[in-house]
């Protein structure tokens, strides 16, 4: 039996790092994190490039949440840059805020028509309301139907085809139904209570999150080569392991894709540094009707760095994930068939003692950052409570001793 560690955590993204800290700090467990990459922080990893500009290696990450527990938890490990993300859509050269709002109206239509539409929207739905393109399109008012068609064709359709690699007929109706329209002049992409960027970056946040004497870390380590399942027993480095295992990696890969590969979308990121102070007016501009890439992000808007006459941008080119070396699975392609395939893999873990799946790859779900932090905190609550015979305080998602 391996007596060195109480817990093995596979993956050092948000899911793995948060639950490692919780088990190390609150439960006093000795935790080993194994990470296949050569760096911590998973897909939130950021670094200074050769021009001294802080960039996000795997796409822009903006922290936002309504959850005070999550915000307070992350705030233990970072100070914040007060930043509210704004996104523009480039529609045939016109830049308009997305989600589509009242300001977008006046960029899409002439003044008289935009003013009439605004009055009708406010009268029908109320100022400050959020509705979906399906709700607007189902309205009997012909101008509302025209507006819904405009948003669908110019803001949603081509962007979604590029993002997911599907034809219009293949776009799930539930996805279309969720396309938001804001009856407001709030240009923020997110309306959450708490928003910001870690003041010194995400990697710095992870450095502090992992700074605990009970946490050990191995980078450049493929846990799938060290962790084996033999007749419902877990072996680590060829010895039986009786502690807790938290797996945050791709579940199909853990089982050598024996039932077939789970489908994902991945992204190629193209970084460019330009000899100008600013490349574009906002942090992110979506290209919704043309260009082979989906969006351009300019990082200085996010980080607040003052670098004169030099800026770095990133273009994103989505494509199908093939499992080739260097590719990262980012977005699970949710469908009934794919979920059934995932369930076949999940069933292989049901008989394992003290083995937990956590995160977007292990659970085949898309999580925002705050949601995966909350999920990790709740799982830590459950694990710690099960050891101590305590109850979970469901209102606050924390454990409390049984009196």
From TrEMBL:
GO MF annotations in UniProt: flavin adenine dinucleotide binding; UDP-galactopyranose mutase activity
Domain of life: Bacteria
Enzyme class of the recorded protein, top EC level: isomerase
EC number: 5.4.99.9
Residue ranges of domain UDP-galactopyranose mutase C-terminal in the record: 155-366
This protein's GO CC annotations: cytosol
Gene3D superfamilies listed in its UniProt record: NAD(P)-binding Rossmann-like Domain
Coiled-coil region: none
Family: Belongs to the UDP-galactopyranose/dTDP-fucopyranose mutase family.
UniProt protein name: UDP-galactopyranose mutase
Organism: Clostridium coskatii
Gene (name only): glf
């Amino acid at each position: 039996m391996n007596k060195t560690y109480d817990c093995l955590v596979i993956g050092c993204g948000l899911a793995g790092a948060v639950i490692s800290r919780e088990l190390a700090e609150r439960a006093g467990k000795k935790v080993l994190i194994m990470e296949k990459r050569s760096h911590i922080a998973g897909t939130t990893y950021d670094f200074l490039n050769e021009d001294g500009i802080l960039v996000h290696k795997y796409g822009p990450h903006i922290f936002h949440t309504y959850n005070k527990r999550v915000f307070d938890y992350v705030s233990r490990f970072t100070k914040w840059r007060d930043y509210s993300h704004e996104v523009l859509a480039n529609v045939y050269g016109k830049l308009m805020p997305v989600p589509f709002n009242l300001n977008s109206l006046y960029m899409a239509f002439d003044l008289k028509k935009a003013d009439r539409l605004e009055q009708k929207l406010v009268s029908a739905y109320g100022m400050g309301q959020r509705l979906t393109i399906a709700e607007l399109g189902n309205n009997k008012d012909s101008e509302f139907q025209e507006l819904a068609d405009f948003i669908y064709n110019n803001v949603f359709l081509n962007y979604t085809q590029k993002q997911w690699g599907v034809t219009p007929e293949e776009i799930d109706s539930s996805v279309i139904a969720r396309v938001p329209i804001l009856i407001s002049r709030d240009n923020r992409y997110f309306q959450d209570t708490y928003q910001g960027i870690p003041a010194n970056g995400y990697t710095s946040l992870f450095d502090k999150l992992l700074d605990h004497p009970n946490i050990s870390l191995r980078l450049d380590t493929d846990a799938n080569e060290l962790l084996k399942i033999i007749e419902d027993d877990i072996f680590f480095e060829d010895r039986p392991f009786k502690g807790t295992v938290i797996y945050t990696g791709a579940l199909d890969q853990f089982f050598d894709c024996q039932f077939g590969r789970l489908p994902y979308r991945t992204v190629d990121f193209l970084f460019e540094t330009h000899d100008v102070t600013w490349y574009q007016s906002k942090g992110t501009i979506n290209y919704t009707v043309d260009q082979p890439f989906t969006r351009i992000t300019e990082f200085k808007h996010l980080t607040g760095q003052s670098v004169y006459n030099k800026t770095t941008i990133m273009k994103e080119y989505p494509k199908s994930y093939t499992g080739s070396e260097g590719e990262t699975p980012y977005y699970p392609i949710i469908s009934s068939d794919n979920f059934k395939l995932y369930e076949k893999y999940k069933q292989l873990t049901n008989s394992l003692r003290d083995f937990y799946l956590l995160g977007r790859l292990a659970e085949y779900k898309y999580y925002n950052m705050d949601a995966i932090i909350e999920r990790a905190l709740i799982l830590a609550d459950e694990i710690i409570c099960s050891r101590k015979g305590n109850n979970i305080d469901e209102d606050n998602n924390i454990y409390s001793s049984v009196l």
